[in-house]
Amino acid sequence: MATLANSLTSRLAWVSLRAACRAAMRRVDLRVEGLEHVPVAGPAIIAARHYHHLYDGAALLAMAPRPLRIVVTLDWLENPIGQRVMRKACRAAGWPIVPRSAVLDDQGIEQGRIPGAGRDLRAATRESVALLRAGRMLLVFPEGYPTIDPGYTPKTRDDEVLPFRPGFLRFAALAERDGRTRVPVIPAGLAYTRGERWRLTVRFGEPLCVDAAVELDEQAKTVGRRVRQLSGLAAGPDRGSAAPPAEWQPRHGA
Q1: Rounded Cα–Cα distance for residues 254 and 244 (Å)
Q2: How confident is residue 114, by pLDDT bands cut at 50, 70 and 90?
Q3: Lesser CB count within 10 Å: N end or C end of the chain?
Q4: Which are the contacts of 163, defined by CB distance < 8 A and separation ≥ 6?
Q5: pLDDT band for position 116 (50/70/90)?
Q6: Threshold 0.85, pTM exceeds
């Protein structure tokens, strides 16, 4: 009975959340391309561009064909009460909470490490791996920072895409260690046009699979480049961008 109650609670929470996201996106002309690349069952990770602090997640949740768990960060919340409330809400939704590794000043210069960051990252890793092995789908924003944010962002241009951090690929690799789980990574591009009424096109690309023979940092660069292309952005000199090694070519997910 407890399992059934938890399942119903989770389903109701997802339906309510998606309804709220669809309501939020009424102010944006939204279209989607490549939805056939998103699996309707089984584990998967959607790796998306992070442009808008609200619209990105709302759009992807609104159009998802199945429940999504977002890997979130809460270190932008300075109010301790707000932190506690948001942590409880994320736990109730089944959303892993990851720390951004550094404390930044107003110029974006690292001033130190976030207290408890290691503990929180280990917990988020365990939760993410468990969700993937249970057949869930995770949404991640590997840049860590959006372009438009009411707080701090290190981005200085509308078309800037930060280097993708490889943590999401580590989640997939760890989940696959059981010998049974296979986690496709679906790149998702977000192409915005600002105006009196904003327009947003979300494009999903063909799934990629983690290759144990290649460094995760290099694979993250390739996923980031795919996301940039899907976002309608020319291949440019993003910070830390580099071509992948010749020996690794992304494989399509099963």
Answers
A1: 22
A2: low
A3: N
A4: 143, 220, 221, 224, 238, 239, 240, 241
A5: low
A6: no
pLDDT band at 247 (very low <50, low <70, confident <90, very high): very low
Domain formed by 2-230, architecture: 3-Layer(aba) Sandwich (3.40)
Amino acid at 135: G
Contact between 43 and 132 (Cβ < 8 Å)? yes
Token pair, residue 62, equals 């609104």
